[in-house]
Amino acid sequence: MKVAIIEDEKSIIDAVNVAFEFRWPDVKLVASTTGREGIGLVRKESPDVIILDINLPDISGFDVLKEIREFTTIPVIILTVRSDDEDILRGLEAGADDYIVKPFNYLTLLARVKAVLRRSEKTSFKGNHNTVIGPHLKIDFVNQKVKVDNRLVRLTPVEYRLLVLLVKNKDEVVPYKRIMEEIWEKSFWGETESIRIYIRRIRKKLQDSPPNMVLNKRGTGYMFKT
Fold first, then answer.
1. Which of 47, 182, 190, 216 has its CA 20 to 30 Å from the CA of residue 2?
2. Looking at residues 9-26, what average pLDDT do you find?
3. What's the CATH fold of domain 131-224?
4. Nearest 10 degrees: Cα torsion 119, 173, 191, 125
5. What is the radius of gyration, based on Cα positions, of the chain?
6. Whether the predicted pLDDT of 2 surpasses 80
7. Is the peptide bond before 103 cis (omega within 30 degrees of 0)?
8. Where in the chain is the domain with CATH 1.10.10.10?
């Protein structure tokens, strides 16, 4: 298994490397200290997960994330120096799968890495049919491919899992609580902003505007309308 870290503080890279060597020795860590080099590193190494610092010396981590999302759906965990909701939401909107606020516990980081990988691996869905067809939407559950009007749509692992959850329960409202537990494996505390961000991204990629496939029942949850 391979993890890429894009972080300008070498001390953090070294500490993360030691944490993996001690707790998860099978992991190979590859690193870059600048954004541009990091993008090239991801292209070259094709890691299983990316740890990305938002504050980099050459370009913003948000720009790095945006460019990475143009060619891969590899899970990304962003590192931010403060628990600023604006930074966190901006990262999620750009396609991040999770975030950690600095300073952080390295065992917590390893746990987050395992969690995003586990969520990524759970995207497969076995049903009676390999493909669900709506007016414009096709989902190949075997190959995990989504098409809108026969155009391939690139979804991140979180986006794909959320769409599959809604499709599996088509024409029924999936409560916010269940979405948080099944997609993010987190308890629901009444905060729906993260869910809303991912729904907005899914709608945009599915060209579902105004929404007629992914609908919201205010105060309750979301549903996929056939």
1. 182
2. 94
3. Arc Repressor Mutant, subunit A (1.10.10)
4. 0
5. 18
6. yes
7. yes
8. 131-224
Residues spanned by CATH 3.40.50.2300 within the chain? Answer: 2-121
State the pTM of this model.
0.73
**CA pair distance 226, 198, nearest whole angstrom:** 20
Instruction: Answer whether residue 128 shows pLDDT above 50.
Output: no
2-121 in CATH: which number?
Answer: 3.40.50.2300
